User: Fold J domain-containing protein from Jatropha curcas.
Amino acid sequence: MDIGKLWWPVDGVAWKGLAYTVFILHFVFVCQLLLLQPLVSAYDGKAGNVAELLEKVERSVKVKRYSEAIDDLNAAIEADPTLSEAYFRKASILRQLCRYEESEKSYKKVLELKPRHSTADKELSQLHQAQSALDTAFTLFDSGDYKKSLEFVDKVVLVFSPACSKAKLLKVRLLLALRDYSAAISETGFILKEDENNLEALLLRGRAYYYLADHDVASKHYQKGLRLDPEHSELKKAYFGLKNLLKKTKSVEDNANKGKLRVAVEDYKAALALDPNHLAYNVNLHLGLCKVLVKLGRGKDALNSCTEALNIDGELLEALVQRGEARLLIEDWEGAVQDLRSAAEKSPQDMNIREALARAEKALKMSKRQDWYKILGLSKSASAAEIKRAYKKLALQWHPDKNVDNREEAEAKFRDIAAAYEVLGDDEKRARYDRGEDLEEMGMGGGGGGFNPFGGGGQQFTFHFDGGFPGGFGGFDGGFPGGGGGGFQFHF
Assistant:
């Protein structure tokens, strides 16, 4: 038998087994090399490998992949627990994320390995400042000092911890409390760019749009958040609160359009009570309520509602006009003229405003003249006969000869009584007076000053009473002494 022929088959099987074993070992080695490269690099301790690791970490931080960076650093520390640079970098990242307790431990480890590490010592001090500032900011927020709280967040916390999500969200809440809604939208935009599913950012951004009265966009943010977490209590409250407000507003509009003004008033009040802080929307509710109250003739309530609208937006022209109308209802003539004049200056081409201003000016002018009806104790609907009877009665009562002890008062009252009858006893003059025409056009003067029944310098003045005073006076039938027939005379 040829021994060589027997050897080769056995040798071939052995070589195949050997080759297979080598392949397996090589494969395992390559896998270890690929998966544990950071560990090997760190453990190796060479400056080049450490620099490469830190460069990789830096790239992760730049794209805000903080978890990946920390994982790499943890792997390096596990491979070499004495690698101070890995501890330092980890501490710095944790400080930026405001994970202060973890960060402090890493900084202390750096200082333990390298007691003279001045940068670590400095950053540890910054960590303490940021940590204290964040605690203070939350305390100030809870106490309502929003401006001061925002200063701590902006000038300390986000300077030393720029990646602190907790501080960023607190800043947004502070901006909302300060009613800087545009800034709140901007800040939440940055947060959602990093994490589009951040529920608190979606809620706060929705609120910012809500308080700008952009309800459609607000609703979309609430809905997206609820799709991610249907049981999120704050998102549910915000979403259904908005739906309720819009529903109530629709009811207001329907009742007002149908002429159900008293029901509309109650709906307006209910809508305003839902969120008193929703100024951008409530300004229109206050205005709508004012207009309905003006139509109902409730001037005082209308004045309050329009003033509320103007407190929110002092340039709201329609609120200024409606407040002028409300002032007319409560006979605040000067206030009405002031409001309507301001409105006319803002919109000089608006004829409706000019007409309302003319009415107010006329009412103010009429308010300053003598009220002849009031002097005679009559209403504006009094008949000619009633005017005559009232005049005779008052002239008799306040005749100076009958009021010797208070002659000056009697003369003044008698003068006004005579002036009142001079106007109201004449159908044409009375009509002109009722139309609000200027008394001076009648030759009377605003307070009867141009009409003196006593004349001047002892002149004689004669009043004529048809039939004299009924029943006579002082024993003289038909008139005072010195009178005759159908009239009487008196001299001063």
